[in-house]
Amino acid sequence: MRLVLAAVIFIFLVSCDDSRVYEENLDITNKIWIADSAKTFQFNIKDADKRYNLYFNLRNTVAYPYENIYVTYTLRDTLDNQLKKELVNFNLFDPKTGEPFGSGLGDVFDHQLPILNNYKFDHTGPYVFHLQQYMRMDSLPEIISAGLRVEQAINE
To answer: What is the pTM of this model?
Structure first.
């Protein structure tokens, strides 16, 4: 019964998120993110006059072996033109205390990390976003899922 109640509350909270344009999280097989295994997301922009925030969603366990994660992202338009590409670094744990950042329950922590803030798309239509881990390890352990969230920027 508690699980059903929690699911209903979660659905209610998620459905009330008016700023969200797109959000998808992809599970990582066996909690090991392979370096050449890019996660691909396709989303639609319906209003090119507005500005948007893009976030990297990450779920990891406390057994993740590093305090940070490097990822590369590429944003492409419908003609496959590369609009943005960047290597970014995010701290997942406090470097001094080792305490995990993000919101967590038990040994699993969720992060919503800013990729692009106040971004203006040139036109409406579909866009493709590729996300790839760029750590020294080819097989990065203890990553449960990776995702993308696109939301309308509030401070237009």
So the answer is: 0.85
